[in-house]
Amino acid sequence: MEEITKANVKISKNDWDAFEASWDFKKQPLVSYSTNKISTAFEMWSKECAEHFNQLKTNEEELNRIFIDIYGLQDELTPEVEDKDVTVRKADLQRDIKNLISYAVGCMFGRYSLDEDGLAYAGGEWDNSKYDTFIPDEDNCIPITDEEYFSDDIVGRFVEFVKAVYGADTLEENLDFIANALGNKGDTSREVIRNYFLKDFYADHLKVYQKRPIYWLFDSGKQNGFKALIYMHRYDADTVGRVRTDYLHRAQKYVETAMQSAKYTIDNASSASEKSKATKAVTKYTKQLAEMKIYDEAIAHIANKRIEIDLDDGVKVNYEKFQGVEVAQEGKKTLKVDLLAKIK
Question: Mean pLDDT, consecutive 10-residue segments, the chain of 344 residues?
């Protein structure tokens, strides 16, 4: 009985440690197998999970039999355990792909390394020697855009991560597999992945970290004018300034250029559909620029303050330092702007 109990503890602990929330998390399971295809890695992970699930169920039923015999409860209880009561998790394609993406973001920021197990950086002194296979982002800012206009945006970085882990030869097949698992809208796998980062990634991150995010999302608002992630543990007093000048301002210039191009198309379109598409684009860009203008005023105010954070204060206290920034509007009521996405 003691051996069975110890086996159950080990199975349950291994299951818990396969997910980021565990202090003893080492590496995302789909990265751990020697294969160049994510589909194959998932099959291997599924088989491993099923074996653990069935073994734990068998063990629990054996323990039930032992206790039923000890206490003479054969007429009142049965040893069978329903699947829903088994406490380890079976493989789940969408969940596990999302966990892979979360791990990839961790590697982008240097929280994790493909060359080391467990946490590579969670504050303290940075050590470049921990990263060889995949190099983390240099300036701790990764933009999330609805169109591709940064070479180092989150989709570009994610594609590089997939290539680093599984190789260049199977890149497109792996991206297709990821996109199909996510099920988001998009005409190509990269568009599907982009839409996931744009619309769903941060909500999933908040669930994993129970509304105490370690990656912070700078977010200009509903028009998706500007979004960028930073890693809380790499924050310094100049981070907000870098986000503003190196990314927000560049994004504004891109949108301005894209709007001029769309206006030119309207004036010179050869078909009604082409003109209609360009007109919709101009409307979108106009709204984005208005949103970004207000956001720029708010972020400038905080950037000039060069706010410090103390990791010992926790996420909630530090997060609030970047919310509710007052922006005066000529002839209108003063706006309160949140620099970071709200924690819902």
Answer: 86 92 95 96 97 92 84 82 90 98 98 97 95 97 92 94 98 98 93 96 96 97 96 97 97 96 90 92 96 96 95 94 88 88 87
What is the spatial distance between Cα 309 and Cα 296, in angstroms, rounded to a whole number? 21
Cα 150 to the chain's mean position, in Å? 18
- Contact (CB, 8 A) for 282 and 262: yes
Q: Which of 198, 165, 196, 204 is nearest to 180 (CA)?
A: 196
Alpha-carbon distances, residue 266 vs 146, 148, 218 (angstroms): 21, 22, 33
Return the structure tokens found at 49. 């999970």
Q: Rounded to a whole number, what is the largest CA-CA distance in the chain?
A: 88
Q: How many Å apart are CA 103 and CA 89, to the nearest integer?
A: 19
pTM of the model: 0.93
Q: What is the spatial distance between Cα 169 and Cα 72, in angstroms, rounded to a whole number?
A: 62
Phi, psi dihedral angles at 314 (to 5 degrees)? 85, 170
Q: How far is it, in rounded angstroms, from Cα 53 to Cα 50? A: 5
Output b/e per residue, 35-56; b: 16+ Cβ within 10 A: bebbbbbbebbeebbeebbeeb
| Residue 253 identity | K
Distances in Å between the Cα of 148 and the Cα atoms of 80, 192, 198, 250, 251 are 54, 13, 12, 13, 10
